[in-house]
Amino acid sequence: MKFSLIIPLWNEEKNVKELIRVINESDLPRSGMAELVLVNNGSNDKTGALIEEAAKEFPWIVPVSIYPNQNYGGGVYEGFKHAKSEIFCYIPGDLQVMPDDVIRVYRHFCAQNLSQKLFVKGHRTVRFDPLQTRIISFVYTLIANLALDLRVKDVNGLPKMFHRELIDLVPVERMKSFVFDSQILSLARVNNWIIQEVPVTFHSRRQGISSWSQKKIKTYIQVFCQILKLRKLRYDLGVPLNPNQKSEAEIAMMKNPVRSAKLEDMVGGWFVGDFYPSILRSKNFEVAVKFYKAGDKEDWHVHKIGTEITVVLNGSVRMNETTYNHGEMILLEPTHGTAFEALTDVTTVVVKTPSALGDKYKFL
User: Could you report how far apart the first and last alpha carbons of the chain are, in Å?
Assistant: First the structure.
């Protein structure tokens, strides 16, 4: 399993060469990193030229330039557009997050065997940044957890690693500031992704000036307002990152017209639909085989776009206070929700049309 490492850079000419040297001399190019996407985020120094020069020497560097500056979140998102791997990871370019911690997060990610709906991130247990920054970070994490139910120890802790499908859940209105971290964490949480944190070290900045030191009270107020706005945005429909670009996995499937897969390798039993892994990629419908133990429950949820059909292959279930048994089928049109309870051990087949990522809500 390979990953793309994305690093946004803004006026980092003093750090770029050292950053690339440290990565090249680490185990990253030989330990899972398929490519290094370096985003020149509207720099007005030599950052862009240094990236282009390095790309000629190292074939695994993907140079990207955007103008004007799109802020932290905008720079990271632009890097996602140019990344080709199924797994994304991102860190800053100021050498405060080192390759050893990227490898640590990557190994933890691989060990879980849950490649699709798994989000692994750093938790800065050792920090060498200024006390003021640590206090602000603590307060920010507290506010974001209370407002968005993130349930994490360190919202802005990096590296962050996840399957590229998560970015397809990002709505039209994206946070371009560092609140982007909170936005993707909130999307992972409301869509039932597993979020895990790994202890990492946050080093002091070697060169240049941290953007944190330039923040004013007005900026903190704006950040607080953005956090509150995310309470609604996290339920908005996502926009595919590159709707016309095929991933490496899709290309491999197209080259192999006869293929097999195991249901146990699928996430939640879903094996057909516009997601990965799947044995057939389709935007028109989704299919799953699901197994439940007696007493298993799913909270009330509703689809705004998709029509869902559930077929009870064996056992008994309760949906919307009605009991259904072997051989019965239940159709739910959009905006008609249900809770689910397995009254016995149950196997169901679920079909949804169309396949719409993120089309699952706790309320209308």
Answer: 38
The span from the CA of 179 to the CA of 149, in Å, is 15
Q: Please, what is the Cα angle at 111 between 58 and 28, to 5 degrees? A: 15
Buried b (16+ CB within 10 A) or exposed e, 134-151: eebbeebbebbbebbebe
Fold of 3-233: Spore Coat Polysaccharide Biosynthesis Protein SpsA; Chain A (3.90.550)
**For residue 240, is the peptide bond before it cis, meaning its omega torsion is within 30 degrees of 0?**
no
Q: Which residue has the tokens 């509703």?
A: 302
Query: Which fold would CATH assign to domain 258-353?
Result: Jelly Rolls (2.60.120)
pLDDT tens per residue across span 82-103: 999 999 999 999 999 999 999 9
Q: How far apart are CA 110 and CA 135, in angstroms?
A: 33
Whose tokens are 């009330």? That residue is: 300
- pLDDT at residue number 210: 54
In 3D space, the residue among 203, 72, 200, 199 whose CA is nearest the CA of residue 130 turns out to be 203
Q: What tens digit of pLDDT does each residue of 255-275 get? A: 677 778 889 878 789 999 887
Residue 160 clears pLDDT 60, i.e. is over it: yes
Instruction: Quick: pLDDT tens for 32-66.
Output: 999 999 999 999 999 999 999 999 999 999 999 99
What would you measure as the largest C-alpha separation in the chain, in angstroms?
Answer: 68
Domains 3-233 and 258-353 share a fold: no
Mean pLDDT of 144-151: 96
Q: For the chain, which residues make up each domain, given as ranges?
A: 3-233, 258-353
In the Cβ-directed half-sphere of 30, how many Cα atoms lie within 13 Å? 4
- pTM to 2 decimal places: 0.70
